[in-house]
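Memo to structure team: turn this sequence into structure tokens by end of day. - J.P.
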Amino acid sequence: MTSDHIQTLLLCALPASGKSETRKFLSSLAPEDLRTSFKIAQTVQLDDYPYVDVMKKVDAALESIIGTARARMFYPHPDELFFHKEDWETLIHLLNEDYDDLIDRPARPEVDSGRWMCERLDRAREKTGAYQTWGEGQASEGGRATRILSLPEGVLEQLYAVLRPTTDVLMREKYDCFPETLEDKTVVIEFARGGSQGSEMPLKPPMGYEYSFSCLSDRILSGAAVLYVWVTPEMSRAKNIARAQEKAGDAATSANLSLNHGVPEIVMLQDYGVDDIEYLLEKSGVANAVMVASKASGRPFVIPLSRFDNREDLTTFARSPQVEWAKDDVDRIRAAFEHCFGGLTEQYTALHG
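Reply from structure team:
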């Protein structure tokens, strides 16, 4: 495979590290500048956070409709951890499906958007093997191991109605925005992974980047590079608190959901108290790259990876409208990206031409 641009850029970091601001800054650059300086073509954006938001809306709706917290399927409470950690993999399968659809460009389903989303959640969970692990239909220590679409039709109709304002937007964003081709595009996929504070390496699956990278489809891995926005866990927690206190603005779009959501403190400590990027770089034996073994095919992949050092907070200014950006801030982040992308693009070119 030969490519004059990065086909798929995995944009990864701890929460509130500056991923969405990084995406916003790069999108502000002229297309020719972006391709020449950073090997990034016109971008198509994917992000797993809107699915987290939908999962929480499903839980809240089911608790209200059925009248008990035992009806929840994903979280015991919106400010707590997943019932079942396998749902970290569920999120990856949703991204895999989004990526496949960018290539295959299926027709928009003639179905209620709420039902469409519930079908997708069930299908992605099925791919993790979790229903077999949990015991179908059983109320376990961690919640209901039940397919959403197995609920009574009357419950589902009410659930779809609650979800519809959100899922209408997500369905429209997905099916109305397919590019004609990905040949001249860079697909940017944003997600965060980690493990419990104080964990030793390697992180135990399904936690951490090592496992989530392995669950990405071969279609994604075959042309992927990783841009990691580097801050300390302590900085991530502090910025997360600050972000949650800001006004969310128009949170109806997936971009605003990603930019403005706050992560609960227990999740910051238990799911994002540490991550495994440094460990993966150290063990790879390849400069500016990590080794990934595809869970689906067993194929090994060398994935170029570079860390954008944001420990001095080069990105917060980009939360403001672009017209308010100061030249000094833009110059600083530009210089940092040029340094960061030097090794990344060199490794990507060596692998892909």
